[in-house]
Design a protein that fits this description.
By secondary structure, the chain is mostly helical. Helix content is 73%, strand content 0%. It folds into two domains: 10-66, Homeodomain-like (Arc Repressor Mutant, subunit A), CATH 1.10.10; 70-197, Orthogonal Bundle (Tetracycline Repressor, domain 2). The protein has ten helices and no strands.
Length: 197
C-alpha cells in the first residue's frame, strides 16, 4: 500500500527556470535562500522537498542552463572549418550573454569567479564542465590544424584558450553593461584577424 503526500502546488520546471534566473543574475554565493523562494514563489520546505538543498538546486539549474542556453557550443564544434567554429561560438556566446529576456553575463563565469572557499565544490563543478567543453574544442581545433584551416603554426590548446578567453571577456563585459552592438564589434574584429587559410 502506497502512502502519497500532498501533491505539489507549483510547476517544478517553472520553479527551476526561475531559480536559474536568480543564480544567473547573482551568482551562487550572491544568491540567498530567500532570493530563491521569493523568485520561485515557494516555501523553503517546498524547495527542499522538490530540489534538495541550495547546492543541489544550483546543479539542476546548471544542467538546465547547459541544455537550454549552451546548445550553440555543440553546433559550433560541428562547423566545417575552424573559423566557422570560432564564428559560431563567439556569436552564440554574444547572443546568450546579451539576450533581452535573460540576465546579462554568463552563469559559469560569474559563479567560477565569485565563489569563495566555502563554495569550492560548486566552483569545481563549473570548472569540470568547462574542461569537458575545452577538451572537445581542443580536439576540433586540432582537426582544423590537420586539415589546413590555418596558414601558420598554431597549437590547438593555445587557440582554444584564446577563444575561451574571448568568450569569458565578452561575458564579463556584457555583465558590466556593454551593449550587444559594442560586443558585436569585438566579435567582428576577432574574426577579421582570425588566422585562417
Amino acid at each position: 500500500m502506497t502512502v502519497r503526500g500532498r501533491p505539489r502546488e507549483f510547476c517544478v520546471d517553472e520553479a527551476l527556470a526561475k531559480a536559474l534566473r536568480v543564480f544567473w543574475s547573482k551568482g551562487y554565493e550572491g544568491t540567498s535562500l530567500s532570493d530563491l523562494t521569493e523568485a520561485m514563489g515557494i516555501t523553503r520546505p517546498s524547495l527542499y522537498a522538490a530540489f534538495g538543498n541550495k547546492e543541489a538546486l544550483f546543479r539542476q539549474a546548471l544542467d538546465l542552463y547547459q541544455r537550454d542556453k549552451l546548445g550553440y557550443i555543440g553546433q559550433a564544434i560541428d562547423q566545417a572549418t575552424a573559423r566557422g567554429v570560432a564564428k559560431w561560438l563567439l556569436e552564440g556566446m554574444l547572443a546568450t550573454v546579451t539576450g533581452e529576456r535573460e540576465p546579462h553575463g554568463c552563469l559559469g563565469v560569474i559563479t567560477s569567479t565569485t565563489c569563495g572557499e566555502e563554495a569550492q565544490s560548486i566552483r569545481e563543478e563549473v570548472h569540470r564542465r568547462g574542461r569537458t567543453v575545452s577538451a572537445a574544442l581542443v580536439a576540433r581545433m586540432q582537426r582544423g590544424i590537420d586539415e589546413g584551416d590555418f596558414h601558420g603554426p598554431v597549437e590547438a590548446e593555445a587557440i582554444t584558450k584564446y577563444l575561451t578567453a574571448l568568450c569569458q571577456g565578452i561575458a564579463v563585459q556584457a555583465g558590466a553593461g556593454s551593449t550587444r552592438e559594442e560586443l558585436q564589434a569585438v566579435v567582428a574584429t576577432t574574426l577579421a584577424m582570425w588566422p585562417s587559410r
